[in-house]
Amino acid sequence: MQNTKIAILSTWNESCGIASHTKVLKHFFESENVQVDVIPIPRRIFRIQDPSKPQVKRAEDYINGVVAKVKGYDRIIIQFEPGIYGVNVIEILSRVRRIISAANDIVLVFHAIPFLSKISLIRFLMSLAQLNIRKSIGVFKGMLSTFLWERFYRFLDIKARKKSIAIVTHAMRDKEDLQILFKNVRVYDVPLVYLYEHERKGLASKATDSALPNMLPNMLEGGKRYIGVFGYIAPYKGFEVAFDVIKCLPKNYELLVSGSVHEGLLVTNGGIDKTVKQLIQDVDRRNSALSKKYWKEKLTVLKRLATNTRGKNEEQDATKVTGLIGELPKFSSRIHFMGNVSDDDMLFGMMLCDATLFMYRNVRQTASGPISLAIELNRCVIASRNETFLELARYYPDNISFVDIGNYHEVAAKVLASRAAIVREEIVAGMRWVYFDKKTTAIYPDRVLDVYKKAFSRFCLNYF
Q1: CA distances (Å), 360 to each of 33, 46, 241, 357, 364, in order?
Q2: Residue 322 has pLDDT above 80, yes or no
């Protein structure tokens, strides 16, 4: 249907994974000649740190404008990351309910599945009896959150009797969990997909604009090999494990850290991010350890020189000392903090790597954009055995090499073994790209569009 109008409610023009997903989704629909508009949901308006009346009124006025806009569209896609819409469950769900009530056909894309704890009045009363105020507040908040989310799910199911409401998740597990909760809301799943086949094949043609050759000016020297971690810097992503991996690899291996702190975590008058500080301190600590080892070795040589009574060894020892001067090893020289690079440069960075590492802890994310991109690019992907990546492997059973969380020795062994799977290397715009045996079970944008067609199809056979 050529005249169908779709609106996507999402963060937009922000450094944000959801905004990136929206950009791709918009591109997919427009490839089918469907009119798609983005209605921005700015974090800065809804995640306000100042709870004063003018700020709250500004947020509410903005939501009123969104409610008025969605009435003019045939179909609505809500990028549903609860934290985008506010700072507490009450205001978040209230705002989303108003949007859903005003809209026509609706698809909610769940980027986070809230954990629903069991409502236990006995547990709450016991914590009060123990005079544990902090625990009591925590139990009460958990009970209130569960109550509000259950009410929201019932609201969706009731609304779905009269209008088309569907949910799209990025993991089969999440679909299965949500299907249990609904009678009328339809639930679908599809992994994150970013690239058309022609975009993957045409990647090299865009490499001339890359900033990476300037950031890594010596990348083609000394037989250097790269491994990489990608995405926003966060405590659960295990970037520090990659430091341990580099320590176990030959000295020609270096680590690319491609990412920065998420904009949503920036606070007014805030200093250095806690995770960034820990990573820097980790590098400094390793520098210090190498320096101590260096000076210990040098002191041993100097002591031998001082006590050497055999002329035949004096020249050899003097040469060794001279050779050590100016060669103080630094762990930091093997770590490259790349910062928040462009979308294309993140892809180019992956093409440089013998292995892409995803050492996430088990935090039950719904999906990860960087690992999905690495799979689409047919990279060597080494990932933690957590629930999220095990779910992703249900879509891509042959594309992820798993290791136990934190086992850097196992990771290092797999990195070295990955060299055997490299089929060719080529210089692209001053960068050495590595290519692996084809193994991707591709999930193309067409499949993504098929899922959204089904999600929109309850009352209309002409989807778009």
Answers
A1: 38, 28, 9, 9, 10
A2: no
